[in-house]
Specification:
5-stranded mixed beta sheet; elongated
């Protein structure tokens, strides 16, 4: 009895990688599309330094910035103090949110307190002041 060896049998012994590559690309597209990107403010602010740092999660917080000249910025838009409360109330909707005030260290404490007061009148209970870590 003679056995025949065909060249085809050697070709069929390999593993087809095409489905695996398809799955890897589909997973890559899924992770890229579902990744969350944090929106950073573009206002330049020289924050005051502090020895303690609050490590609580500020993701999704409302960011209000006050630059060195005393201009108030919300959502990359220059706003006046009286309209800040209405804009924050609109941005919050019915959700409970945290607000972070990103104030330059040259801003007067009176202006900072007025801005924090406007934020609290909008219904935000947790207002934090952003600082940078003090260099030793």
């Amino acid at each position: 009895m003679r056995f025949r060896h065909r060249a085809e049998s050697d070709r069929d012994a390999g593993i087809d990688m095409t489905p695996l590559i398809d799955i890897v690309f589909i997973m890559l597209i899924f992770f890229v599309l579902t990744a969350s990107f944090e929106n950073q403010q573009t206002i330049t602010v020289d924050r005051p330094s502090a020895n303690t740092v609050d490590q609580s999660d500020k993701k999704g917080a409302l960011i209000v910035s006050i630059d060195a000249s005393g201009m108030i910025w919300f959502e990359n838009r220059n706003v006046a103090k009286p309209e800040l409360t209405a804009l924050i109330r609109y941005a919050m909707g019915s959700k409970t949110m945290t607000a972070v005030v990103n104030a330059d260290k040259k801003v007067s404490s009176g202006l900072l307190i007025e801005v924090v007061d406007q934020i609290r009148m909008a219904g935000v209970g947790n207002v934090a002041i952003a600082t940078q870590t003090a260099e030793r």
